[in-house]
Amino acid sequence: MTTICDLPEDVLVELLSLLPARDLLRACRLVCTQWRYVVDLTTLWKRKCQRDGFYAPNLDRSVSDWQVFYMLCSLKRNLLKNPCAEENFEHWQLDSNEGDKWKIEDLPGTHGRDMPDPTVHKYFVTSYGPCFKSQLITLREEGYWNQLMDEKRPEIVVKDWYAARFDCGCRYELTVRLLSENYIVLEEFCPEPVVIEQWSDAAWKEISHTFQNYPAGVRYILFQHGGQDTQFWAGWYGIRVTNSSVTIGPLTL
After folding, report:
1. Model confidence at 30, in pLDDT bands (50, 70, 90)?
2. What is the DSSP string of 218-234?
């Protein structure tokens, strides 16, 4: 009697590649020695990458571990919640909320411009007192297990968009920290504050940073941004921010 274990290796690879990665690693790999061997094959994970649209021929030389590459691709998404103010201030910690406090406005806003991304419709805006907000990302809760972060150290890409209004100067600040289990700062991106003078072009600008080769032990990512206007006008004349993102590798996608 012929069983699934009697199938040629290439057929078994094709069949198992149809299964979710979690089932392959937690169940199929434990069935027998042969299945363990097949689940560990590079060809199986490359096939899964092809099925899910993660594969391109130019990656053949740059990808050293197709299983890890597949897992990172399948997990990749914006880890910041409510980045474009569609849910009011949900998920954001208001660390500093002075002046007339944070506010949400619709694009393009008074004396403002639309975002390059037409899917973004709202932004957060600061006042004449310091306004800062943050999110703490717990990597394990987002699917990034400790061994993955410590051994593979995938690229962590941070992006943010900011703009002034035409008729008022303002100040923008961004700080992103990679934290250990005990909240010790292992690496930090904290560029010089951006000061935009009155009568600027009010264009939206992107700031981006990629963490690479960071120390082992990263368990959290703290993202904080904000600022204020520089002319201390009552109302909401300060820096505008939206479309923030934190993503984890691979850079090829």
Report:
1. confident
2. --EEEEEEEEEESS--S
Instruction: Name the token pair of 23.
Output: 């089932």
Percent of the chain at pLDDT exceeding 70: 96
Contact 55, 216 (CB under 8 A): no
Task: Please check the confidence at residue 3 and state whether its pLDDT lies above 70.
Answer: no
In this structure, what token pair is assigned to residue 74? 């399948």
d(CA 167, CA 18): 57
For residues 158-189, one letter each, b for 16 or more C-beta atoms within 10 angstroms of the residue's C-beta and e for the rest, the string is bbbbbbbbeebbbbbbbebbbbeeeeeebeeb
pLDDT at 253: 47
List the domains of the chain with CATH numbers. 4-73 (1.20.1280.50), 93-248 (2.60.120.260)
Asked if pLDDT for residue 7 goes beyond 60, the answer is yes
Residue pLDDT, tens place only, 60-100: 888 889 999 999 999 999 999 999 999 999 999 999 999 99
CB 142 within 8 A of CB 236: no
CA dist 232 → 123, 193, 202, 219 (Å): 20, 17, 18, 39
